[in-house]
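Deliverable D5.2: sample structural annotation.
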Amino acid sequence: MNPIIAIVQRNLLNYVRSKGRVFGALFMSMFMLVMFSFLMRSSMSGLDAPMPYLISGVIIMSVFQVSVNNSSDILTDISSGYMKEVLVAPIARTQISMGHILSGAVIAALQGVVTMICGIVLGLRVGILQILLLTAVMLVSAMTFSAVGLFLATVSRNSPAFQTISSMIMMPLTFVSGAYIPTTMIPGFLPPIVYLNPLTYTTSIFRYIALGAHTLTKQELVGQGMAFSIGGFVITPLMGLAITLLIGAFFFVLCVRSTIKVAVGMRGGGAAARR
């Protein structure tokens, strides 16, 4: 069996068997969807479709959070000794990293689809083609975020450190991405962070498809927070998707290098891997 497929199947099976984990993730997504969609609707009064605008942001945000959090599975494998057995097997480090990234992306995308179905019930109006495109965007963006999460996990080496580091990164990125608050309303000193945030571009392309904004001009997209003008140059949603893919590729390379360091630490003894 292909090593990537084997790792994906194992991680998916472990996730499904953890009933509390599945329920907790779905409950938080539903809670955020309902609370943000209704409580923050008044802050979106200047938009043409405030509810769909918010709902689409919450959906992609749930994909982001699940992608990063599921990357902590590798820490369990390291502490249990399973990862040591995998690393000594004749498997390329790229396959190990890809297996973990892909499994996290599939889980996040599936949860995103469930959240999107609930969003449709709450007022998000999308056609079949839009649903397919949105699912593809969720899967691609989830792979990028899984790569980021896996890198953080391999660097932190233990669950408490991972939770601390991921929280420090996820919280700021969440609120400057435009998912909950349009980037047009963000204070003037934050745009540099907004433009460096991969979640900003993911939210942009997701909303672009969900709201059917292909008929809008570049200036209108900028006004809606779905495109970004930097020194007169406009980053369109499609350009943003390309940027997200490049960021994902960059972190994938970092994941492979981090996995190699984990392997070296394990060959040198368990203490090195736990540092």
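Annotation notes: The chain has a mean pLDDT of 82. The longest helix spans residues 237-267.
The annotation will be released with the project's public dataset once the embargo ends.
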